[in-house]
Structures are given as C-alpha cells and as structure tokens.
Amino acid sequence: MSAAARKVLALAVRPADTPVPVDSARAIAGLGLANDRHADPRSPRQLLLAGAPAYHDLHMAPLTLRENLLLDLDTAALESGMLLRIGLEVTLRLTFQCEACGAVAARLGGPARALRGRRGMLARVETGGMLRAGDPVTILAARATPLSDDWHDRVATVLDAVPPGMVITYADLARVAGVQSSYCRAFPRALAKLGPTRAARAIPARADTPAPRWDGAGFFDTNVGVRSDI
C-alpha cells in the first residue's frame, strides 16, 4: 500500500464500555485520548488501532473490534516499536498486537481464533494533538524499543525495570505490562517460571514488606528509547 493511501477512516472514543463515533479527538501525550476510559499514563494500551481489511474479510459490523482508530491498512502487518504520525501533530508508538478476547469474538459471532492477529494494534501517545477522520497516516523511519506480544515476556521486562530495593504489586505489574487484571491470579505460577530474582520483585497488594513500592511511573520514559538507525 502506498503512503498516500494510508489514512484514518473513522474515530471513536470510549468514555465507558461502548465506543462512541466522533469526527475528532484530542490525543494527550503520555496519557491517551481525552475522555477515554483507557487514558492511563502507565499503560501500553492507551489506544486501539484496527484495520479496515479485517472488517472486510470477517464481515463485521462497525466498531465490533472496539477500536479508537480505524485505518485503511492491515494492522497485522504493523510491528511493535513503529512510530506513526497521524495528521500533522500526533505521533503514536505501537506497543503490541491486541489479543482476541472472548467478548469481542461473541460480538463477531464466531470463535476467538478467527480474530487471531486481526484484532488490532495497541499504542501509546508520544506527541499529542488533534486527531481527525481523514488524517493521513505515515510510518516514520525512527523506531522505539519493541514490546513482546507475549504477556509473559512483557511481565519479565517490567520486573527487570523495578528499581533496586523496590517491589511492585501484582495490580501495578499487570497495568504496566498491559495484562488484564484477571491474570493476576496466574502471577504466582508465572513468576516462579521467571526465576527467584524476578519473582521476589512482585508482591500481592496486602503483602507485609518493608520494601518501598514502585508503581511503574516512568517505565515508558526510561525503558523505551527512540532510535533512528533503521
């Protein structure tokens, strides 16, 4: 697809569970979209970008994927770490492919595996500004350090970033790693497989420990640096 063909086809904001179509939306650097439930400075899931080809191929009704931006490109071809310029102002940093959950599959009326690799790409807002339907989409030459699509790997990456002498609660670990909070109950077994050093850095919220707690603040500022050597 040529660069000239890439554009934003539609926008939606999610003040609650149901996405609301809009003509424009304000992207806030480091936070997400204004008035969107997923706006969170410590989350890699601030926005969801879906591709029109998935809607065409799977014959889905509009907003089935609950996306914020619908693009006229196949998001399965996008990679973590890519930087997208939207319009003249906004830069998005792609984090990882969104998993195909059962709730979305139910709206599709088929199994979750039909959406594997087609749900869309999650992103963070690097540079804020106004987003509008029809805005051109440009893939920049610069890249950011990628994050894994595998949540186990992302958990390990966050644990490696915990400052010396500090610990992180399961809830904050899930938040920064972009893991559904329901996965917290799987953390003890998953952490054991990552080794005792990493496992010791994560604790339940009510754990009795004198170690100061890190909530993940600054993770996306210090752990992920932009490089332009590609």
Structure description:
By secondary structure, the protein is of the alpha+beta class. The protein has two domains: 3-144, PK beta-barrel domain-like (M1 Pyruvate Kinase, Domain 3), CATH 2.40.33.20; 151-221, Winged helix-like DNA-binding domain superfamily/Winged helix DNA-binding domain (Arc Repressor Mutant, subunit A, Orthogonal Bundle), CATH 1.10.10.10. It is built from seven helices and 14 strands. A nine-stranded mixed β-sheet has the order 2-1-6-5-9-8-7-11-14. A hairpin with a 6-residue loop joins β1 and β2 (20-22). α3 (151-161) crosses α4 (170-177). The longest helix is centred in the last third of the chain and has 11 residues, at 151-161. Mean pLDDT is 88; it is low at 223-230.
Provide a brief overview of the structure.
By secondary structure, the protein is of the alpha+beta class. The protein has helices spanning 52-58, 102-108, 151-161, 170-177, 187-193, 196-199, 219-222; strands at residues 8-13, 20-22, 24-28, 32-33, 47-51, 69-71, 82-86, 90-97, 121-127, 129-132, 137-144, 168-169, 202-203, 226-227. The two termini are 20 Å apart.
